[in-house]
Amino acid sequence: MKFNKKTLVISFLIGIMVFTSGVFAGAGSEDIKASLNHMLKIKVNGVDFVPKDTDGSILAPITYKGRNYLPVIALSEALKVPVEFDSKTNTVLLGKIVKDPENLGQKTKLGDLYSSQRYSTSSTYIQLARDKEALTMYGKTYSHGLISKEVTNNQYMIHSLKFNLDGKYTKLTFKAGLIGEGKNVNMRILDYSVNKDDGIDITSKVLTQKEGMEEFEIDVTGIKVLGVGVSDPANKGQKDYKLLIAEPVLQ
Length: 251
What we know:
Blueprint: E1 8-10, E2 35-36, E3 42-44, E4 47-49, E5 62-64, E6 67-70, H1 72-79, E7 83-86, E8 91-94, E9 108-109, E10 114-118, E11 127-129, E12 136-137, E13 140-141, E14 145-148, E15 159-164, E16 171-179, E17 184-191, E18 200-208, E19 214-219, E20 225-231, E21 242-250
Parallel strand pairs: 1-6
Antiparallel strand pairs: 2-5, 3-4, 5-6, 7-8, 9-21, 10-15, 11-14, 12-13, 14-21, 15-20, 16-19, 16-21, 17-18, 17-20
């Protein structure tokens, strides 16, 4: 989003902080000489915007070395982006708040969070892949994954495995591929957080035989119970194929 032709730098200025032209006290701070720019106009989506503090008082932007700094708390309200301040780490948090920030960047194997299954009475529908043969696809052997070899003749019956995420993760990544001449199977990633019986599709992709694996990155922010399953888009039942979801990892 562009605000006129000047470069706007969003500084981390919380609403309780007082704008001055002199000193900000505190460890790690630096004395500067800046100006409150009462002449700078701001538009958000074509509409005039006046930054205000939580008490309604007007907050003028600061101009420092040719750059304009806006108060985060006012700008976040204008752009409908949530903002919080973590006093323990002295960090401004914009946008989605990660519940467990110390785990941010760490990776967890999806299979480690397995809890139950849905319509998977046969081990050939979908299961955790545990041996080298099951984990090999297109000449490469993966370290872990999920495998399917059969779907029933009901496109509305989703054979799936469930995993307890507890809302701790934001991203699921994996590779997927299918071997089977003339076969096509619908791979489904579902959210079972609200209804434990009927999941809501997050991603639905019909896989066919190709030379190589497809890469996927799925947003799982806030999901408590995740489902990974398969169904038959042709509604006729299919066997004699191999679908591998390789190395599904959560972050």
